[in-house]
Design a protein that fits this description.
With about 120 residues, the chain is mainly beta. It has one helix and eleven strands. The longest helix is centred in the middle third of the chain and has 7 residues. The chain is globular.
Length: about 120
């Protein structure tokens, strides 16, 4: 069975992004349904797969990272509204039997992602 994981890395400070709220959203056409909310641990990961088994199906998803709250807590000063606050990463799952790893590398003014394994 496939599953979904993530890992948040704070590239400005060179460490994991901990205590970041992530909303997991399933996309169905124009409908967006929040199916789960998780928080990263001290290593910037979730303690278990975000989705797995019957909950992980083929389709479109978003992971919505509340990075602005994390950056504020880290003491990064910025004008409001922040350049980066809530970061949605939309991706497709074409084979729900595989592992999809969707990490976020974030700093106050940039982010990147990729499909890891």
């Amino acid at each position: 069975m496939g599953y979904l994981t993530t890992h948040v890395l704070d590239t400005a400070q060179g460490r994991p992004g901990q205590d970041i709220k992530i909303e997991v959203i399933r996309i169905n056409g124009s409908e967006r349904q929040v199916i789960k909310t998780v928080t990263t641990n001290d290593d910037g990961r979730c303690d278990s797969p975000i989705l797995e088994g019957d909950d992980f199906v083929t389709g479109e998803y978003e992971l919505v990272f509340h990075a602005g709250d994390y950056l504020r807590a880290q003491g990064f000063k910025a004008d409001e509204p922040r350049f980066l606050d809530v970061i949605p990463l939309r991706f497709g799952v074409s084979d729900a039997s595989e592992h999809y790893h969707v990490p976020l590398l974030v700093s106050p003014y940039s982010y990147s992602t990729y499909r890891g394994s």
